[in-house]
């Protein structure tokens, strides 16, 4: 059954086109990336999200398809220098990435220096003109006010998405966080929910809460579960 919000909203369709099929483990192999890309084409996922060292291979594998290659910058802790994030992002785009998921400097955010966070996001956006930049907030480390301010910083800096989590922190996406980010964003940027989304119910709940993209390493299982519920497999 689809998840339905108190206001009546629900998500009933195939979620595949909303999913970034993700594999960011340190021990990821090229063979695993090959499989990831093949699955992304087969199931119609929006993108694959892969480690920077696998971007060129992924782009070559997916050449001629509609699946985008996404990768990360400043991942997973966000405390590298701004110039390093710019360099990572630019090199990834040169290698074939079309989307960059960057981690904010959480120390700056923790001390309320949101102007500096905004400045860094803007610097990364300018380093890869025309590229979709998603800003990873790592929501579990911040309160409501800080998360709201970080969404505003991402909007002002020209990012296209805010993202809940790296998937490497204490916890991942929650419905409450997605609802908050979506409310603050108010359509100005998309919201990517990531971290711990492993089932169709998880995915639907995030989409109903306001997510416009889902990051998950369980994309195949999620879509297969949807196909079974629809009697299509």
From TrEMBL:
Gene Ontology molecular function, alphabetical: deoxyribose-phosphate aldolase activity
Major localisation: cytoplasm
Catalytic activity, as annotated: 2-deoxy-D-ribose 5-phosphate = D-glyceraldehyde 3-phosphate + acetaldehyde
EC number: 4.1.2.4
Keyword presence, Chaperone: no
Reported function: Catalyzes a reversible aldol reaction between acetaldehyde and D-glyceraldehyde 3-phosphate to generate 2-deoxy-D-ribose 5-phosphate.
PANTHER family named among the record's database cross-references: DEOXYRIBOSE-PHOSPHATE ALDOLASE
Name of the protein described by the UniProt record: Deoxyribose-phosphate aldolase
Organism whose genome encodes this protein: Geothermobacter hydrogeniphilus
Protein encoded by which gene: deoC
